[in-house]
Protein: RND efflux system outer membrane lipoprotein
Organism: Novosphingobium pentaromativorans US6-1
Amino acid sequence: MGNDMIRKTAVLLPLLLAGACTSVGPDFARPPAPPTESGYASDGEGHADLAAGPQMQWWKAFQSSQLDALVAQAMIGNHSLSASRATLEKARQRIAAVAGRSLPQIDANARAEYQQVNLSAFGLSDSLAGSGFENPEFDLYTLGAGVRYDLDLFGRNRRALEQATAQAEAQERATEAAHLVIAGRVVTQVLAIAALNDTIATQNRLLAEDERNLDLTRKRQKAGSGTLVEVLSAQGQLAGDRASLPSLEQQLAQGRAMLAVLLGISPVQLGPTDFSLDDFALPVTIPVALPSTLVRKRPDILEAEARLHAAVAAVGVATADLYPDITLGGSITQSTSEPDRITSSKFNAFDIFAGLTAPIFHGGTLKANKRGAEAEAQAAAAQYREVVTEAFGQVSGLLSALGNDSRELAARADAAQVADRSLHLSRRSFEVGNSGVLQVLDANRTFQRANLALLESKANQYQNIARLYAATAGGWLPGTSEVAQSTEAPSG
């Protein structure tokens, strides 16, 4: 009857106490989204459509299969992304480890011993003196198992699981942000290489013009209508323009090396990179997420939110440490000196226990831990607000830049057309003898600067478009990226 009562108590007590369990500490509340009518300020006339957010992998807006292939290669081969994915897997495994604490902990044990009993310890040595009886020696074999279960009355384990889950989510968002950053760096690097290719091509065309001018001045000198000064001026212009090519080619080599690093390969493994800015389409409209949408889809904001969640859960863990804890358990053992009879019920023993642990005095450590966790949660909240503010500022700045890019590009195009017309007229005038070669050289320099400035403005416009797409997290809606996986704790 006594054993039956013990067994019933062992079964019912966890169920009764579990109903009274609670999780102490604050519950996490997701920060509210900002109103859609605020958050961006722009003085420019950008091409942004604020009614929608990008729903695709944003680099595909440039309509270049070569660019798409390079981004896909970076998503697979980039070493920093591989490290980030491994860190994410570690965070997910920690969820399983923490979740296991809420389940009964069962251990088995086996032991083989050789013992000697000291009879003197039991006061038997004097009574046995002279009998020739010595301290007995024998073998002892023990086989058993035990189970322990933490009732988690005040939710310490549940808060720890909540914290681990939030930390895993933060790492998942950090991994998504890393993918977004690498994609952006690949795109901007490809665009930079394309701009350098176009600049080198423009420079080579200008060198051809310089050689043409030099040839004309030499012919005029031979014909007696030109001077040596004109020839030397044309030679100087050609030599000066040639001197800029090595620097551009070095920049191109460095750009290729940086692109190879992003792809996770060596520069010698990188294929041809003969891109031109004309190979990429310029989006007519650029969808930009509204503030309320941005905070729900930009990975770095979601990461900061998850870290805030983890910090709030840590307050619950520290609070639960201030309260008592109850552990239930039991064990069964088999002990015998005859190993072939180790499974016989004749040699078994068991115990069932319930233990209470309550903090009494820890020198203020537990309360200090709680106050520290609260301070960390306040810091996480401030960091979240900072990330959101910086994101809005970044998008606003890029919108303004795009508006300025449009106006600058139009002005640069007009200047290039005027310079081209001026150079054409100067050459005609020079060919018919109405002007000297110096006027042609000046017009040529003006045309060169105008074309290079136009190319630079066009490259800046493409780069800012790419940065804006990345800043609005195009193609990285939560749950749609290839790194998004479930972070739920395993059952059972």
Remarks:
- Strands lie at 48-49, 105-116, 137-150, 286-287, 325-336, 348-357.
- The chain has one domain: 64-115+138-478.
- The two ends are 33 Å apart (CA to CA).
